[in-house]
């Protein structure tokens, strides 16, 4: 009969609380997508302001019905924010504790490897159940300084829509200023 070893224990994984953590990468876990939240009031304000410019352009250019809807995303599509890659990272800090943090966005494939000595700058997430996210990585093994980048609300909406919204706000402000002078 085989005896069970009751002394075996799995190491407890903690979420670091310090802003800067130094340690060694233990493992990069499989990444998964997470969606950026898009606030409805912000989206409505941008779409209304952009709509003013679209109406003005339609009046000036008298666009045909076939051309008017080309390339526009629906409110529902804009409401669903962009997805970004979340990669859980396990590291052993300088005190020997096994910690988990999250890497949001993409890095070059050769940027991090298990056993790399790193210094991480972390930020807490809104959901306290989630591990802190990495803002900046200094790979002390290779000497690289890395900053992961993710999609934002503004990159999701895109330059054309934001330009139209800016012009719409300027037009509304001009109309309001002209109306107040009368």
Write the layout of secondary structure elements.
Blueprint: E1 13-14, E2 20-28, E3 32-35, H1 40-61, H2 65-68, H3 75-79, E4 83-93, E5 98-104, E6 117-123, E7 133-139, E8 144-146, H4 153-157, H5 159-181
Parallel strand pairs: 1-5
Antiparallel strand pairs: 2-4, 2-6, 3-4, 4-5, 6-7, 7-8
Helix pairs in contact: 1-5
What's the quick description here?
This protein has 182 residues and is an alpha+beta fold. It contains 5 helices and 8 strands, in the order E-E-E-H-H-H-E-E-E-E-E-H-H.
Descriptive report:
The structure is a single chain. The chain is an alpha+beta fold and 182 residues long. It contains 5 helices and 8 strands; from the N terminus they run E-E-E-H-H-H-E-E-E-E-E-H-H. Strands 1, 2, 3, 4, 5, 6, 7 and 8 form an 8-stranded mixed β-sheet that branches. Helix 1 crosses helix 5. It is elongated and about 80 Å long. It starts with 12 loop residues before the first strand and ends with a helix. About 3% of the residues have low confidence.
**SS strand fraction:** 25-35%
H-E order? EEEHHHEEEEEHH
Q: Cα distance, first to last residue?
A: 97 Å
Number of helices: 5
What is the overall pLDDT average?
80
Q: Can you count the beta strands? A: 8
Distinctive features:
182 residues, alpha+beta, eight-stranded mixed β-sheet, elongated
């Amino acid at each position: 009969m085989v005896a069970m070893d009751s002394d075996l224990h799995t190491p407890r994984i903690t979420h670091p609380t310090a802003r800067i953590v130094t340690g060694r990468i233990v493992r990069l876990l499989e990444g998964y997508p997470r969606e950026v939240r898009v606030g409805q009031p912000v989206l409505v304000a941008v779409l209304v302001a952009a709509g003013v410019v679209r109406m003005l352009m339609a009046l000036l250019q008298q666009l045909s019905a076939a051309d008017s809807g080309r390339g526009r995303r629906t409110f529902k599509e804009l409401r669903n924010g962009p997805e970004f890659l979340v990669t859980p990272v396990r590291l052993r800090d300088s005190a020997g504790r096994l910690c988990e943090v999250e890497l949001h966005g993409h890095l070059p494939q050769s940027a991090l490897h298990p056993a790399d000595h790193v210094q991480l700058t972390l930020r807490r997430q809104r959901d306290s159940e989630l591990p802190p996210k990495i803002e900046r990585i200094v790979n002390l093994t290779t000497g690289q300084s890395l900053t992961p980048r993710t999609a934002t609300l503004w990159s999701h909406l895109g330059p054309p829509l934001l330009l139209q919204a800016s012009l719409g706000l300027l037009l509304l402000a001009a109309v309001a200023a002209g109306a107040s002078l009368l």
